[in-house]
Amino acid sequence: MRWRGRPCIPAGIRACPIRSAVIDQVIDVLLLILLVITAIAVVRIKSLFAVVMLFGIYSLITAGIFVVLDAVDVAFTEAAVGAGITTVLMLTTLARTGHKQAPARHSPALPLTVVIITGAVLFWGTQDMPRFADPGAPIHLHVADRYIEAGPEEVGVPNMVTAVLASYRGFDTLGEVAVVFTAGVGVLALLGVRRRRKGDGDG
Fold it and tell me: How many domains does the chain divide into?
């Protein structure tokens, strides 16, 4: 293989920047298309069991997008929590409550309007963000250099990702753990309430 008259090294895909960029874009587009298809299927399907499984697939696709963006640590978290723990909790809940969706008692116009407005506000808010991989972004000019240069000394952990998640972003990580814990407690509480009601009915 050759690129601009020069040999392209098979072992290093970065030796062909144009081809590599095209492949990355194709993967990004395919993953986003799968994400949209999965989201539409979640809205259209009435079986709650199928919806839970599609949510797990959605999380796996999202984890794949994070891998493409070189955020492997976030991808691991998304796959473990989104496709793993959350799916198990939802399936456990469905085993107790049933897998058929109850008929809608109100018009979907109001929830749809709220979602559209929220999405528009979020999209508008992203207009002030720096461009993707912009070397002049504040995070690349101030925060990243600090983490790389002072991280091993300040934290004492050689792994950069571990140092950021456990120390510099410790409160953020604690918040994520609290959210997962609260979700688990909520599911267990709902299961306990239903079990007590069932026991009262049998008595």
Answer: 3
Which burial class, exposed, middle or buried, applies to 78 when counting CB atoms under 10 A from its CB (0-12, 13-18, 19+)? buried
Residue 54 contacts residue 106 (beta carbons within 8 Å): no
The tokens describing 78, both together, are 């998304």
User: Is 123 contained in some domain?
Assistant: no
Reported as a single tens digit per residue, the pLDDT across 96-115 is 777 776 777 777 788 889 98
Q: Which tens digits make up the pLDDT trace of 181-200?
A: 887 787 777 777 655 555 55
Are 76 and 151 part of one and the same domain? no
Helices (H), the chain: 17-44, 48-68, 72-77, 86-97, 109-125, 138, 144-155, 160-163, 170-202
CA–CA separation, 70 and 68 (whole Å): 5
